[in-house]
Design a protein that fits this description.
Blueprint lengths: L1 H23 L4 E2 L18 E6 L7 E4 L5 E4 L2 E5 L5 H12 L8 E7 L8 E5 L5 E3 L7 H7 L13 E6 L2 E6 L2 H6 L14 E4 L5
Parallel strand pairs: 1-10, 7-11
Antiparallel strand pairs: 2-3, 2-6, 4-5, 7-8, 9-10, 9-11
């Protein structure tokens, strides 16, 4: 019994020492295949297209983009903050601004093209066919992101890619295997994305 116990203690000590060495060497942890957290109401972001309908007042109803500074300008309403609000919150703000000119205005806001707040976008940089920022969608996976950017280039080191993510206020890097996923069909390499993730695809040196 003492020999067996000593054997397992030695194995445990070696495992802890190995983990410490990996941490010191800056190794990236594999990305967990976990379910993303549920999203709340969608928040309008710069670049979103919105449709504003003022009941019985078509002259002040229109479709327009949210400016890069997060504001919109409509007839009778100038420089109103839109980014960071839900469509319902923005509709109520527009109603309040229009009360000076229209009796009891009723406003509906519909987001017709989604980009989302900067902090919730997924950015893809490096050797993607079309590097870009994407609006995060509930349940979005790594495969969804790769489809949206057209896959990876012939020069990509797909299995050396990483996801840069903020967890509890600190930045972590998670290793992902793009080549295994795309070219070998290894579904185990498909992982859940989170709002604000940055997918970095390095270039192969050979």
């Amino acid at each position: 019994m003492n020999v067996i116990r000593r054997h397992f203690l030695q194995r445990g000590a070696c495992a802890l020492a190995g983990a410490a060495l990996l941490a010191c060497a800056g190794e990236r942890a594999p990305a967990p295949a976990q379910t993303p957290p549920p999203l709340g109401d969608y928040l309008i972001g710069p670049g979103d297209m919105i449709s504003i309908n003022v009941w019985r007042n078509p002259e002040v109803s229109q479709s327009l983009p949210v400016r890069p500074d997060g504001k919109i300008t409509t007839p009778l309403v100038e420089d109103l903050q839109a980014a960071g609000k839900t469509s319902t919150e923005l509709a109520r703000d527009i109603e309040k601004a229009l009360e000076k000119y229209i009796q009891q205005p009723v406003v509906t806001v519909i987001v017709t093209s989604f980009v989302g707040p900067y902090a919730e976008q997924i950015r893809v940089i490096g050797q993607a066919a079309r590097p870009q920022a994407l609006a995060y969608r509930q349940g979005m996976s790594l495969m969804d992101v790769l489809i949206a950017v057209g896959g990876i280039t012939d020069f990509a080191a797909g299995n050396k890619a990483r996801i840069v993510r903020r967890v509890d206020g600190r930045q972590v890097q998670l290793a992902v295997r793009l080549q295994d996923l795309l070219r070998d069909g290894d579904i185990s390499a498909n992982v859940a994305m989170r709002p604000g993730d940055v997918l970095v695809i390095p270039e192969s040196w050979f």
